[in-house]
Design brief:
The complex is a heterodimer of chains A (491) and B (492). Chain A is an alpha/beta fold and 491 residues long. Chain A is 38% helix and 12% strand. In chain A, strand 7, helix 8 and strand 8 form a beta-alpha-beta unit. Chain A starts with 8 loop residues before the first helix and ends in a 10-residue tail after the last helix. Chain B has three domains: 297 residues, no CATH class; 112 residues, no CATH class; 57 residues, Orthogonal Bundle (Arc Repressor Mutant, subunit A), CATH 1.10.10. Chain B has 15 helices and 16 strands. In chain B, helix 7 packs across helix 8. The longest helix of chain B has 20 residues. Classes of the chains: A alpha/beta (491), B alpha+beta (492). Chains A and B meet through helix 9 and helix 10 of A and loops of B.
Chain lengths: 491, 492
């Protein structure tokens, strides 16, 4: 039998249904791969061997009788931000030490309801705050990709869904869940040669996902193909009465949208995304993407999103503001870490000082500052106005075009410790945050390699709740790019 | 911009060493919304219960939990707004009020800050001396209650009970239109009456369902508003009056000594009757309000409001007006009756088909006195409206006199039973047989010839004869018949 971990999700699904192999077999293959390789990559922080095998056996029973859901028997990795009943759920923060929820997030419950198998919980930046997976309490995640040409230095997988990206790229799961507040699915997907989609805000329920910035957070998958993302999102998305920001709309059949036909599709190229000093390879890749879509029959149009340059600064006001409030519940009173003191204020201070890492503290401080009396109007209120303008930019652009094509990231993967200036780090999300600010869907598709042989991605941005057009266009890009490069296995 | 809506009334002035002072008071009343479940979770709101029995994952602020608005609480807030004749805002926004406290699990309270669900309204007061006073309502907003920290249960530790965490409150903010402690007490009493009529808050101050933050300042009569102090969490109407009286005197003393009032938050200690500083303006929290991103703005249409308006009960002011009109009652009597909706309903049941003035005298007289004595509402004092009605009927048809009726009521209270049966069993039926009365009168005249002779000179002595006759009849002689026959026999 060939290595089962080589198969993508669609292939696994066919193989299981065709009884070419069992869920138990592929689950064991993945568990073995994780046990062998995880020490080098640090993608998983908890591996749920017993649970995985029990779920696989249950799936096999269903598959044997011709039953089973859309993901029956498919082994997945879950970002640590999702509450999983009785299993490590700590947002990779020290402050949630020992926390195992008594409840299951809506998104993961949807996956289990469709038959998926949980392999374990994946590493991530602490509270999803980071673009390199260097802020996790459980240590850095390592990118399976390395620069060619002798430099064997480890690279970051991007963040915050770094564990999801590394595990999926290194074939330590068929696919993984991620969350994206400013680019946390798309940026790591791009840096590891994967497909990652952040759906429209409100498409996936946020119930049971540890909150970072409530008005921006959205769950989505990281997968090795566009079709796999479509299959995953079909299961992850659902209406949810427990999340009032989640839409009460039926989930379309995303896989059916993969027609391979973009003839007549109007693709917008936002001029403001052409940054000064953008690396040549990004520029070239972007032009390549334009050419591919044009050859496939799409119509290319230049569009303008004039407020783009304000998006990143506004994001770094809105997201920390919400985070400063969302993270107030981690006070040592009810769960997680408590550093005791006779005085309650001292207990708070010690617990939060020890429990939060430097990046989380930085954002809580920024957020507290921008909401403070006397600064609210100048920062938070103004950022909200910018947000409205950004939304309007997109609305106007989408009057003329169906989808936008941009680079996914300003550069390929970098080395841990290479970026120490927080603002420089924040610039990693320059192409992705606008999409969160506007609540729109965005997908990253691997499209080429940089001169060092590292993967680069393109991003497609769609109209609200028009994930189908994103998948259709992404499918065409994927086929044109024919991205077959693989990291050389060193782990 | 605060507008002074009142004309200074010397009756309300407080005299100090340097002259008269006028109080300016505004209240923030926190009223627990009557609902089965909490504002953003399905947990029970019932009072009592074991600590932390009524706590959902949302109430305990577990990671990843989200609030979902309770539609019934929204209806209750709109109902209250309509009862306060206030503007209903069809779009309102929930904000987060951020502060750390162990009984505040989220680290923020979900409240409404800039855009409350209810805007300006009015509460009408009838003050015994000043007559009508209109107190403006600034706003009403919904918010979550916090849990309870308990410091004396476990030695050396504080413990937290989250049963109240997330219970829905309405904060009803008045304009600074109140000018005396009596008005403040009347305002809270009236507000509580309105809430009870509406069924939106049980008004139970002992259980904490209703409590008030009292803003007090003093000024020269009709002058500029002074600096105010806020007295937090006063939980009885009596204490509100005491706190205001103390605070007014404290502030006047400071000002008359040439000092200045520090804007601060104070606490009232009912044991000593004084207010104490809790925190100064400098120590005030910066709550960092911002719109709660977990909740969409609360929006509803006019039809939603209209449906609630259509189901509104008759409110105290309207009921009072109708009672004056329908029963010919005085404003004072009608006002007393409508304080408790049950009392008003009790009265109306008694008055049905009877003389309303007689009915009100019995309800607010003898029965109210008894109810007051046993510490129960009139409608709940052991006598049904039907029983009291039957008693009044016995007077009306001449079976018993009003005086005997009072005795019958005492028996009904002490022993129970229907009034007609009691009258029969105890032989209390009024004597209307003129022959029998004549016989008694003749007997009394015969026994007191000298007095009978004097009565023509001193007609007031007739009363003495009436008394004698009533005594001999055991109080059962019909007083009208006694008067008539006596007058005839004595030649008056």
């Amino acid at each position: 039998m060939s290595d089962l971990t080589e198969l993508n999700l669609a292939q696994v699904r066919e193989g299981l249904r065709g009884k070419d192999f069992t869920s138990r077999e592929i689950t064991d293959a993945y568990l073995e791969a994780i046990d062998t390789s995880n020490a080098a990559l640090n993608a998983y922080i908890t591996v749920t061997h017993d649970k995985a095998r029990a779920m696989a056996d249950a799936s096999d029973a269903k598959l044997a009788s011709g039953e089973g859901g859309a993901l029956e028997g498919v082994p997945l990795g879950i970002k640590d931000l999702f509450a999983t009943e009785g299993v490590h759920t700590q947002a990779c923060s020290h402050i949630l030490d020992g926390f195992e929820p008594t409840y299951e997030s809506t998104v993961t419950q949807n996956l289990w309801d469709d038959g998926a198998v949980m392999l374990g919980k994946l590493n991530m930046d602490e509270f999803a705050m980071g673009s390199s997976n260097e802020t996790s309490y459980y240590g850095n995640v390592v990118n399976p990709w390395r620069r060619s040409g002798g430099d064997n230095a480890p690279l970051v997988p991007g963040g915050s869904s770094g564990g999801s990206a590394s595990a999926t790229a290194a074939h330590l799961c068929v696919a993984a869940t991620g969350t994206d507040t400013g680019g946390s699915i798309r940026q790591p997907a791009a840096l590891t040669g994967l497909v990652g989609i952040k759906p429209t805000y409100g498409r996936c329920s946020r119930w049971g996902i540890v909150a970072f910035a409530s008005s921006l957070d959205q769950a989505g998958p990281l997968t090795r193909t566009v079709r796999d993302s479509a299959i995953m999102l079909n299961s992850m998305a659902s209406p949810d009465p427990k999340d009032t920001t989640c839409v009460d709309m039926p989930v379309p059949d995303y896989e059916a949208a993969l027609t391979g036909d973009v003839r007549g599709l109007k693709v917008g190229i936002p001029k403001e995304y052409r940054l000064d000093g953008m690396p040549d390879e990004i520029e070239t890749l972007w032009q390549q993407g334009i050419d591919w879509l044009r050859s496939a029959g799409a119509e290319i149009k230049d569009v303008s999103l004039p407020h783009t340059k304000y998006a990143l600064p506004a994001y770094y006001i809105v997201a920390p503001a919400e985070a400063s409030s969302n993270l107030a519940r981690y006070d040592g009173v009810r769960y997680g870490l408590r550093v005791p003191d006779d005085d309650v204020v001292a207990m708070y201070e010690k617990t939060r000082s020890e429990g939060f890492g430097p990046e989380v503290k930085r954002r809580v401080l920024i957020g507290t500052y921008v909401l403070s009396a006397g600064y609210y109007d100048a920062y938070y209120l103004r950022a909200q106005k910018v947000r409205t303008l950004i939304k309007r930019d997109f609305e106007q652009a989408f009057e003329d075009v169906d989808v936008l094509l941009t680079p996914a990231t300003p550069s390929a993967a970098f080395a841990p410790g290479e970026i120490t200036d927080p603002v420089h780090m924040y610039l990693n999300d320059i192409f992705t945050v606008t999409v969160n600010m506007a609540g729109l869907p965005g997908i990253a598709v691997p499209a080429g390699l940089d001169p060092k042989g590292l993967p680069l991605g393109l991003q497609l941005i769609g109209k609200a709740f028009d994930e189908e057009t994103l998948f259709r266009t992404a499918g065409v890009l994927e086929e044109a790019a024919d991205f077959t490069a693989r990291p050389e296995k060193w782990w | 911009m605060i507008v002074d809506t009142r004309t200074p009334n010397p009756k309300n002035f407080i005299s100090g060493a340097t002259g008269d002072w006028e109080l300016v008071i505004g209240l923030e009343v926190h009223a627990q919304i009557t609902s089965k479940s909490k504002l953003f979770s399905a947990s029970s709101t019932s009072f009592g219960g074991e600590p932390n029995d009524h706590v959902s994952l949302v109430d305990a602020a577990m990671p990843g939990m989200l609030p979902v608005i309770n539609k019934y609480c929204v209806e209750q807030a709109v109902r209250t707004g309509l009862g306060l004749k206030a503007k209903i805002n069809k779009r309102s926004v929930f904000d987060r009020k951020n502060y750390f406290y162990p009984d505040l699990p989220q680290g923020y309270q979900i409240s409404q800050f800039k855009d409350p669900i209810v805007g300006e309204g009015t509460v009408h007061l009838d003050m015994p001396e000043d007559g009508a006073v209109e107190v403006g309502i600034e706003r009403l907003h919904m918010e979550q209650d916090a849990g309870k920290s308990i410091h004396d249960l476990v030695p050396g530790k504080s413990v937290v009970d989250l049963n109240r965490s997330g219970v829905a409150l309405m904060e009803i903010v008045s304009k600074p239109d109140i000018r005396s402690a009596d008005e403040a007490k009347a305002y809270v009493t009236k507000l509580r009456t309105i809430l009870r009529y509406l069924g939106t808050c049980d008004g139970n101050m002992e259980e904490g369902s209703l409590r008030a933050d009292v803003n007090v300042s003093v000024r020269e009569p009709g002058g500029e508003f002074g600096t105010r102090c806020e007295i937090k969490n006063v939980n009885s109407i009596r204490f509100i009056g005491q706190a205001i009286d103390y605070e007014a005197r404290r502030q006047i003393d400071i000002l008359e000594d040439g000092g200045e009032i520090d804007q601060e938050t104070r606490l009232f200690d009912p044991k000593s009757g004084v207010t104490r500083s809790m925190r100064s303006k400098e120590e005030a929290h910066d709550y960092r309000y911002f719109p709660d991103p977990d909740l969409l703005p609360l929006e509803f249409d006019q039809a939603f409001v209209d449906e609630i308006a259509a189901s509104l009960p008759e409110l105290p002011d309207e009921k009072q007006a109708r009672m004056i009109e329908q029963y010919g009652l005085s404003a004072y009597d009608a006002g007393l009756l409508v304080d408790e909706p049950e009392t008003a309903a009790f009265f109306e049941a008694v008055a049905e088909g009877r003389d309303a003035k007689v009915a009100v005298n019995w309800v607010m007289g003898d029965l109210a006195a008894h109810a007051n004595q046993v510490g129960k509402p009139v409608a709940d004092a052991g006598i049904s409206a039907g029983q009291l009605g039957s008693l009044i009927d016995l007077i009306a048809d001449g079976t018993i006199s009003g005086k005997i009726a009072k005795d019958v009521l005492d028996i009904m209270i002490a022993e129970g039973g229907e009034p007609a049966q009691i009258v029969q069993d105890k032989g209390l039926k009024q004597v209307t047989d003129t022959g029998a009365i004549e016989a008694i009168i003749d007997e009394v005249i015969a026994e007191n010839p000298d007095k009978a002779a004097q009565v023509k000179e001193k007609p007031k002595m007739a009363g003495w004869f009436v008394g004698q006759v009533m005594q001999k009849s055991g109080g059962k002689a019909n007083p009208q018949a006694v008067n008539a026959i006596l007058a005839q026999k004595l030649g008056l």
